[in-house]
Design a protein that fits this description.
single chain, alpha/beta, six-stranded mixed sheet, flat
Length: 660
């Protein structure tokens, strides 16, 4: 168990937190929450030993291992994705190196040390097996696949990957190391919906201790069994899920206000007695007694609830045409390679559409297609009339002039003819008063993201395109964004892994996956939680969702997504059924190939397990030739199993790409 006691930390004259106490033991999965700038990352770094506390102590066992994923991107190297991930298994790598040294000694020994070497080799072999050494490469492949890496990427140099993918490699390496205490700072920032769901499932069964910072309510609810909040310089622990934390926090705050009110009333009554009888000799003893009682009283302090303004007043944009964007049978790609094929749907004025799917599936490509920045290689894209676009990208938070203040940065995009009070606007994004005059380098990552969002949203446009806007935002800031999008009268295209934000703001989803872009009317939970869908729909052959009806003949009015007469709906259902049947038939050979690959992989894994059991027998090491023969066979069997696993993964991807 790691115990934090009486921790205190200040930055200059500003106190971050004081007298913070927390225990981290096996099975405790603690979500660390609080506003931007309260010291969450500082707290993690103190626990890790990266920073020193001003006061307090941290007790941990000497042999306790701690794994840490910071927000900063890891350096690019020439090492491959798989090699870097496998390096996380330090304990297994050390045993493996010991085995190789002993094997070399066996090769060169003249017989005088044979008994000792064989005994040590047997002990190392048993230790290797106990720690899962024989399955470690398969586990690395599983973790990488869960985090969204295509099998062919495992041998790619890390230097070729973007920052987000490098962060995933760091996370994969950390998970493979299986530390006693896992500390994660915003682990979902660079993940897609699929990978977030996989990580949720992985961490929900984490047997060690876990401490993580996240703004994602769904992720916190799925993983944490305790919430630790830093607010007003005080750390408070709540047992239960995020929903239970919110309810308990409100109850605790109400009780604190009531207690403080009762105490103030009691003090006022006592003070009234003191003032009334202060100069009356017969009451002198009672007056002095009450004065001392008041002086000794511990005043109940109610922490100030500093929440960001929960509403943002959008500038009124011009009215766009009813059809904001229409895609008909479009295919798009780069360098002769198709990314998306046969895409057809209509985005109408006022719709709020979420784009979800694996990273690299084509969400950014589809955004560029929808906004007219990319031409299709086949089919057509029509942008409506009077459509004005403002876009937020993840890198905008870093692309700011360090010599400017917050106010000066906002003024670079504000309409010159506007009479709005821009300091009031900044206040609604958390930059009230003197905070509007802070320099850009003084801002935290979350504060820069808020400022970048403010720059995006103050421009009077009727189409907002937001790419992962909640990265680095705290929960109150996410609430501000959510409320702002709710009241926005224009059209929204939202790319995010934050399922809570999608549920509360979007009225339709576009699922980008396997070269397809599928329109879903409403927000189906099976699209937001693909891992849960797999469990629920095990054995299903085809996706249930279909694109909304395409535009009819040019002389007719374009139907709204999901609309139409009873006959249209009947025809659409028949077409969907025919499409499912056709898909089932067309993917039969791929499904058979997948089953064959799975059977071959299972047989290979069984052979590895059999050889592993033989190597666990101490008698094997009495026969040097037999031992070497089994070791060679085991290595070959492992390679064979790994190859067949890749074959199975490729078969799975091929079936998914075909819509099966």
């Amino acid at each position: 168990m790691l115990t934090v006691s009486g921790l205190e930390k200040s930055h200059g004259a500003r106190r971050l937190f004081n007298d913070v106490t927390l225990q981290l033991s096996d099975g405790r999965r603690v979500a660390l929450v609080g506003g931007n700038g309260v010291g969450k990352t500082t707290f993690l770094e103190i626990v890790m030993g990266i920073q020193d506390a001003d006061d307090g102590v941290i007790h941990k066992p000497k042999d306790m291992t701690i794994g840490y994923l910071p927000q900063e991107l890891p350096e690019a190297t020439d090492r491959t994705v798989l090699a870097e991930t496998l390096d996380g298994a330090d304990h297994i790598n050390e045993i493996s190196a010991r085995l190789r040294r002993l094997e070399a000694e066996l090769e060169t020994d003249d017989g005088s040390n044979m008994e000792r070497i064989i005994e040590q080799y047997g002990q190392a072999q048993a230790e290797f097996e106990t720690h899962g050494g024989y399955a470690i490469e398969s586990e690395a492949h599983r973790v990488l696949a869960g985090l969204g890496f295509p099998p062919e990427w495992n041998e790619r140099p890390i230097g070729e990957l973007s920052g987000g993918w490098r962060m995933r490699v760091a996370l994969a390496r950390l998970l493979l190391s299986n530390p006693d205490l896992l500390i994660l700072d915003e682990p979902t920032n660079h993940l897609d919906v699929d990978s977030v769901a996989w990580l949720e499932d992985h961490l929900a069964s984490w047997s060690g201790a876990l401490l993580f910072v996240s703004h994602d309510r769904d992720f916190i609810d799925a993983v944490a069994n305790r919430i630790f909040e830093i607010s007003g310089g005080v750390g408070t622990e709540y047992v239960g899920t995020f929903v239970e934390y919110v309810a308990a926090k409100e109850e605790r705050y109400a009780a604190l206000v009531a207690a403080a009110t009762a105490q103030r009333k009691q003090i006022a009554q006592t003070q009234e007695f003191i003032d009334r009888f202060r100069y009356k000799a017969t009451k002198a003893r009672q007056v002095q007694s009450r004065i001392k009682a008041v002086e000794k009283l511990d005043l109940i302090e109610v922490p100030e609830e500093k929440e960001l303004a929960a509403k943002f007043d959008f500038p009124e944009p011009q009215r766009s045409s009813r059809i904001v964007a229409e895609i008909e049978n479009a295919t798009v790609g780069y360098d002769g390679k198709n990314i998306l094929e046969d895409v057809s749907f209509v985005v109408e004025r006022g719709r709020k559409v979420g784009l979800v799917g694996p990273n690299g599936a084509g969400k950014t490509t589809l955004i560029r297609l929808l906004t007219g920045r990319l031409e299709p290689t086949r089919g057509s894209v029509t942008i409506g009339s009077h459509v004005d676009i403002s876009a937020f990208a993840q890198d905008q938070a870093e692309d700011m002039d360090p010599t400017r203040t917050v106010y000066q940065e906002l003024m670079t995009v504000t309409p010159k003819q506007s009479t709005r009070n821009w300091r009031t606007v900044l206040g609604s994004f958390g930059f009230s008063g003197e905070h509007a005059d802070r320099r850009i380098p003084e801002l935290s990552g979350g504060e820069r993201t808020r400022l970048a969002l403010a720059k995006t949203m103050v421009v009077p446009v009727n189409l907002l395109v937001l790419d992962e806007p909640t990265n680095h935002l705290d929960l109150p800031s996410c609430d501000v964004l959510e409320d702002a999008l709710r009241v926005y009268t224009g059209t929204v295209l939202l790319v995010t892994h934050d399922r809570h934000l999608i549920r509360n703001t979007c009225d339709a989803l576009i699922e980008v996956r396997g070269g397809r872009a599928i329109w879903h009317e409403g927000v189906p939970e099976k699209v937001l939680n693909p891992l849960g869908t797999v469990k629920a729909d095990l054995g299903a052959d085809t996706p249930k969702a279909a694109a909304p009806p395409k535009k009819q003949a040019k002389k007719k009015q374009a139907p709204s997504a999901g609309g139409g007469s009873a006959k249209d709906k009947k025809d659409r259902k028949r077409q969907e059924a025919e499409a499912r049947n056709a898909s089932h038939a067309s993917t039969k050979s791929l499904r058979n190939a997948l089953k064959t690959a799975e059977r071959k992989w299972e047989k290979a894994e069984a052979k590895v397990a059999d050889l592993q059991n033989q190597l666990a027998d101490p008698a094997v090491y009495e026969d040097k030739d037999r031992m070497q023969e089994l070791i060679t066979a085991h290595d070959e069997a492992k390679e064979r199993a790994a190859d067949l696993m890749v074959e199975w993964e490729n078969a799975t991807l091929a079936l998914e790409a075909a819509g099966g």
